[in-house]
Structures are given as structure tokens and as C-alpha cells.
Amino acid sequence: DQVGDWSSDVCSSDLNMLGMFKRDPKKKLQQDYERKLQAAMEASRNGDMRANATLTEEAEAILAEIQRLEQ
Fold it and tell me: How far apart are CA 46 and CA 48, in angstroms?
């Protein structure tokens, strides 16, 4: 069967080419960063300053990772 044989013919260079279609890790980090900031703001509005501080700290760590990737 020709279709079954195709999978065994895939070489590592083909797999590397497929890697170029992967999502940008910075994009996911940016989304995570924005979600953390939103959650921190909501915690602050609800008077939970401890959660606000924790979420803000987590957001800042994500931002630092984004900045590291941009270098």
C-alpha cells in the first residue's frame, strides 16, 4: 500500500520543515501575561490585595521571559 509506505519515508528534514508552522512562543506568553494582568486587576477590585500582588508578580515574570526571547 503506497499510503502506508509514505510515513516511513518521512525524513528528519521534513519534520524540521513542519516545525516552522509552530506557533510563536512569544504570542502565547503575551496572552498569558495579559490574562495575569486582568486577573490581578479583578483581584484588586475585589479587595484581595494578596492575590493582586501574587498575580502581578507572576505577570512580571512572564513579561521578563517575553523580553528575554526578544533579545
Answer: 6
Q: Model-level pTM greater than 0.70?
A: no
- Number of Cβ within 10 Å of residue 9's Cβ equals 7
CA distances from 71 to 17, 21, 26, 41, 62 (A): 24, 22, 12, 29, 15
The pLDDT of residue 12 is: 52
Model confidence over 22-49: pLDDT tens digits?
678 899 999 999 999 999 999 999 999 9
Burial of residue 39, with CB atoms counted within 10 A of its CB: 0-12 exposed, 13-18 middle, 19 or more buried: middle
Count of CA atoms in the C-beta half-sphere (13 A) of 6? 5
